[in-house]
Request: fold
Amino acid sequence: MVRNSFFGLFSQVLFIIVGFFSQRVLFLQAGRELVGMNSVISNILAILSVSELGISTAVVFHLYQALSHKKESEIATLMQLYRRAYFMFAFVITILGLAILPFVHVFLKHNHFSLSYIRLVYGMWLFRTVLSYLLSYKRSLIIADQKEYMVCMVTTAAGVLNYVLMIVIVGMGFDYVLALGANIFVEAAGNIGLSYYVDRAYPFLKERKKESLPQTVVRRIFADVKNIFAVRLSAKLLTCTDSLIISGAIDVAAVGAYANYSLIIQSIINMVMALSNAVQPGMGALFTEHDRQKKDRALRLLTFVFYFVAVTAAMGLYTMMKPFICDLWLNEQSLPDHTVIVCCALNCFVYTIGQPLVIVMHVSGRFEKERVTAMAGAVVNLLMSLGLVRIYGIAGVLAGTGCAYLLQLMLRLWYFFEDDRRKRCGRYALDLAEYVLSAMVQLPIAVNITECVYHTGGFLRFLLAGGCCVCFSVGVNLVLFGRSERLAEVMRMIKGLINRKSV
Reply:
């Protein structure tokens, strides 16, 4: 699990660094309208990809037990079901994508691109999406087998190469379409490499490919899929409609500006997701046991770790986002309003501290409850974003997303502890309240520290101010929770892992 976490976080750090260079080149060389068009098209296809129904989550959930008990026959039949489903989804997405092709320009308000160019870019994005379904399904077996670091190594190499190609091709003045074509080729090569590894590492997949799953297992999987589909659809509506709302209410250039702010938030979210994905298989193995107290303790410890990430990331966003965009990354014309910065920081904090509950809801198989939670969040986000975007612009859309995150956290809290809300839920809610109060106390002090350090500007001052912000956050929380049993247990776990490695 530690190796998975390390490679996951390492890959995200690389993606962040190279991704910001790529976005800078694309924004300054090709213009905010192309960045906006890129964002809108990718979000349209992300919504279409909901036809995947969530079968990957359901299959991986069943793979946990099959792998832990080394049931080769069940693993092979699950992967065969997975393969057939993904090939069908690729066909469905192709049909839906081609149906939208004649009308894709309608989603791009006030742009100067020709209709043929818009359709070409959209067609290439559609081909990229379909190809990923045909080639990437086998990686789920590697992840479920707690070897996510292997997937990370391949995807990191392919992702960094894609960013470098984008920087070089667009930076030299060539058309964006050429860079997109190169990206498709590199991504396909990485997926083919992972498929080859799975075939070599799990030879029984081919030996047992004619076997079939018991109907009871198939029925259980598709019962889960019905619930997960609603979760996936709601999640797509929550995360992928913001660009479409901004494009419709304002224009495609505003989407380009939003894409820049979104990249910053998404970079942090990707690191959080890398950590979540790394710990999820371990939590999945733990939740096959029947010790409720052990599960609750694991959730509290995981939330404590994620709180450290949440408060550090949120304070860093609030204090350093303005100098980063204005002085280092883009220019003063790209500077967001203060309200946008506040919304970004709050969204980051709520999303991150809510991830442990997302993990335990998934690994405990509470897909029906997740369906309700996801749908409620999507509805709140859509209604609030549509209502606030014309008044507050981009900040209104971000506020809608933040309210949806908060509602989902509260619903997951309610559902996970439904059998003993007074004792179990109350204790966990007190932990969350403690973390929120701690963050509120730290924020004004962190603002003053970073302003004093960065007052003259410059890259070195920026690094120093960011370092001071991180050190202050970690130091204060170590002092505040120094006598906490949560910190002591986390430290014991870390020491145990270190000792295990040294043996």
